Amino acid sequence: MSINLARRSLFRRKDQDNVVRLPWLKADLDFTDKCTRCGDCSKACPEQIIIVGDGGFPEIDFSVSECNFCKECVNHCKEDLFDLTQAQAWDNKAAISISCLNNESVYCRSCAESCESEALKFNFTSTTFVSPDVVLDDCNGCGACVSVCPVNAIAVKLNR
Which residues form the 4Fe-4S ferredoxin-type domain (predicted)? Predict the structure, then answer.
């Protein structure tokens, strides 16, 4: 068995920390060892944000839409991967890059207007524009801000 696991690790993504996995995954779970890559979660997602990623494993793609935390991926999975007793669906949070239009003195609030939890706060001072601050305690990592950004300046990442 250990030989098989060693071989399998050769094909893992080097940047798996940047991959957004499904919500409510068990905290101590080695996802790539337990997921069967059946695709049931992807088929069940009403927002169609669960895509087939590297190695055939499901990943979240916020460029299409947001996660509404409907639990359809959980309900359709036959494996014991999820823990619905967790306080939060995941530890993912929005992150804003320097390519935000506000850093170029272009007024844009698309992300904040799409954020239901109001986790994106703008601090405009006189004529100076700056990108918004992410209020981490308010951000649920739903990704609603990602697809509406006209310059792809927002990503949802694991908050560590």
Answer: 25-55, 56-87, 130-159
